[in-house]
Design a protein that fits this description.
Helix content is 69%, strand content 0%. The chain has four helices and no strands. It folds into two domains: 54 residues, Arc Repressor Mutant, subunit A (Orthogonal Bundle); 36 residues.
């Protein structure tokens, strides 16, 4: 996978493309990126700017963090259920 382009570069290319002075295919060629890459950047920029529905980068990061916390809580829950019988005094009493 090629290295990601800097945000400033992507923003500049999107700004030029939005001006509509040249076809997408030509702009992509001029900037040395694929046409699909430029179209993806334009789509994501529209989402970020609120012009198109979709998940913004901030929302995506928030969702990723929430999933991570849920996974950790689920692991802690499983662990506590396994440890619970051994942590209470009555767990070691014998029935007479």
């Amino acid at each position: 996978m090629p290295a990601a382009h800097p945000k400033e570069f992507r923003d500049d290319v999107v700004a030029v493309a939005r001006r509509g002075e040249a076809p997408i295919a030509q702009l992509a060629k001029d900037f040395g990126i694929s046409e699909s890459c430029l179209r993806n950047w334009l789509h994501q920029a529209d989402v970020e700017d609120g012009h198109r529905p979709g998940v913004t980068k901030a929302e995506n990061e928030e969702l990723r963090e929430a999933r991570k916390k849920i996974r950790l809580l689920e692991q802690a829950s499983v662990l506590s259920r396994r440890v619970y019988p051994f942590t209470h005094p009555w767990a070691h009493e014998t029935i007479m």
